[in-house]
């Protein structure tokens, strides 16, 4: 099998294959079917790529690598943590998995991922987005390869802004933002639809104040929601949230805030730019009436800090086709496909050097402004447990429904501390 | 006529209670179906309408058009039918032995079956996974079938045992006198009487296996052709949130087989549960 | 019909008989104590339970004595830590709060389920044919609704912005319920889950109890009425004692099922807000699958099983007394 695979591979792959089969040939029995070709299985998340992009990429990839039979499997968000766990621990794992950037650390720590540090230079790692590359690394080794990023911007209704006489370009500070939103919040029109548990947004406000979600204290992590800075961030969130009818006990997914905005009575939401497509899709009359501006900062000199969301690609140690997996990663995270992907999906490409690729897309361009102030959640395996239980959401709901903010923050901080230190 | 009136009046509270029961039972079902038929804009309306103003089949179309629709149904039907039939056959044998025979260890067996009801299946998922992995049984519908079989087996044994106990052994004895063998007597005389009990218990098994998500998500990994319906139900959540209309449409389709079967067999189920459970 | 047979049998059941008498009765049932048949018949069940239940359970017990996290799941080289996991749990005040909440949840649910189910069963028995069919069909429909679907609908009904419950309450003049965030308050979320679990459980209990009621001989109630007993009195001293075994069975099953209620809570609140709706199974899954502490999760489940058995010991004792009578 090794022989045929090598014979079919291009010369650039030759070295690599020898390198990788050295450690994976022992378990290579699964690849023996299909004439020595690699049966490459890749897991991407639902809606991380459009069907059209997926087809275009698969066709091109298959044409360029006829020896690799690529199967892209779309995974559902519900129960994904368990699914990835099950995959990593199995004997025949998928070969490439898309993993949320904040989730990489826990899997890396468990020894279930292939260390790709040596490939960093080959992949152009020097210009990777920090918000993706840093969470993808654990103890100095690179396990997650930056795939794409997205951060929140304000999606607004141009017509409603115009009618209220508000100029979005003039909104540079939070105070101006509040004033403008108040003006827009009249009658049954909501100034902003901000659900009570949009914790990514809160994280941004807290960072702006100089606070953080959790801080490292010696060897252990501690929740930091009860610091004066973090409380100031929450107070601003509360002020903003009150300028609309967002439910205080739900997050932006229930119901999808884009669909609520499609209802026509909402002037702004905080969302990734892709949300605008969903709005237009649900209510075609709003097409062309949606604009974007970066989340305003505390002061006018820089935009607000935002959470860099996004995904990394990882290779499970149990993958039987690690060489082919790397070929796939190199293609998808390479400049050519990154530019196409960013345009097709309104993403921030994985390298800072590619930022200009999305200049023509107003949403992505706005996002890129915010991305300069992009931040990530604490880079530790324990953070995934915090997100899974999410005491931050409960805290936000408590603070918004009139409970004592300081007390609720202290409680949530204690829970964050516990979750981060109990988890593996 | 004159005696009719007061009795009717007297029955008023009774009928009010009945109406309330029907209303409370059916409202969520009704809400699921009408939500599935409403356009998205009416679903996210702060003034919900009891009767939809506009109707659409769009959500059903989304649900049916989801990739792998037919595959999901086929797999779920296979797994469910397999688990239910297996547990019926196995449980029938055990229930017969318990209800009709005296043997050493019978009491311990009954106790064990009862305790098996308490199995913490949510936490057995990791050991089951490890065992399946080490015996190369991951990614197979057979594994799921076996797990669902085991989840429903104890309940099936307990209820069938009660059923068999209600059938007077004298009936079978009479048949044996007429020249039937013992199994023959059981098959010809007792089995027809057991039909309602078998239906009641198999429906319970059906519901359990049909609904299960955690094991289906954890044990079927790379072989996507083996995924079951509950996984399909969760596919209407995307990065932007849950598509409520499609979820409700999918839920309606998902509930339909169970609802239909239950309604058809309603009489058997009720009479069956009664006779089955009386003997405890 | 088995039911007609049932009508007379309980009355004629002999009191605990001396050994020879019972042997004679067994003898009547052919091939009583002898032969391998009973063992062959239960063999599949026993083997199935051994491999598919006991073996995984033993592995789970093993895990609960090990340091077992994601790393060990992947590499499989766990080492023993003795009772450390149990110690960690039992000394955690949060765990005890969860235990107390589990019992509260179970008790509230079981009481409500039993009372409502009994009322519905009694009502159904007194209804005319049409109404009875209607009530039974609705019960069956509610019962057949998939748990996930029902939970999703309930979540939607109580949505603070778009839910029909808030809309109805507000329309009825209760303005404090305008956009009332149900899932923000621990107690409110707890109440919604109780409503959901009761709604899902009553059909099974009510139908079973109703069918039991149909087996109670009408003459007995009639003669009690002639003796001047009131409706409540008849219920208490004639009807209930007759259907006692079935009431106990339903009670026992409901205890087990509500103690293990998981899917509803997981889908609806994930145990929140805070810990307000975290009961033991939710706690175990949260620890095992979210924090990847499979060891602690296993230990929590084992404790759950022990606690549940404690509750059910009473039932088992009663069941065996009954067994002896046979």
Automatic annotation (TrEMBL), chain A:
The keyword Signal applies. SUPFAM superfamilies: Periplasmic binding protein-like II (SSF53850). Pfam families: SBP_bac_1. GO terms for biological process: maltodextrin transmembrane transport; maltose transport. One of its GO terms (molecular function) is maltose binding. Residues 1-22 form the signal peptide. The keyword Cell membrane does not apply. InterPro entries: SBP (IPR006059). GO terms for cellular component: ATP-binding cassette (ABC) transporter complex, substrate-binding subunit-containing. Keywords: Signal, Sugar transport, Transport. Belongs to the bacterial solute-binding protein 1 family. This is Sugar transporter. It comes from Streptomyces longwoodensis.
From TrEMBL, chain B:
The keyword Manganese does not apply. It is found in: Cell membrane. GO terms for cellular component: plasma membrane. Keywords: Cell membrane, Membrane, Transmembrane, Transmembrane helix, Transport. One of its GO terms (biological process) is transmembrane transport. InterPro entries: BP-dep_ABC_trans_perm, MetI-like, MetI-like_sf. This is Sugar ABC transporter permease. Pfam families: BPD_transp_1. Its main location: membrane. Belongs to the binding-protein-dependent transport system permease family. Residues 73-265 form the ABC transmembrane type-1 domain. Gene3D superfamilies: MetI-like. It is a multi-pass membrane protein. The chain crosses the membrane at residues 12-33, 77-97, 109-132, 144-168, 189-210, 244-265.
TrEMBL record, chain C:
It comes from the Bacteria. Residues 1-32 are annotated as: Disordered. The chain crosses the membrane at residues 37-58, 102-122, 134-159, 179-199, 246-267, 296-316. GO terms for biological process: transmembrane transport. It is a multi-pass membrane protein. Pfam families: BPD_transp_1. This is Sugar ABC transporter permease. It comes from Streptomyces longwoodensis.
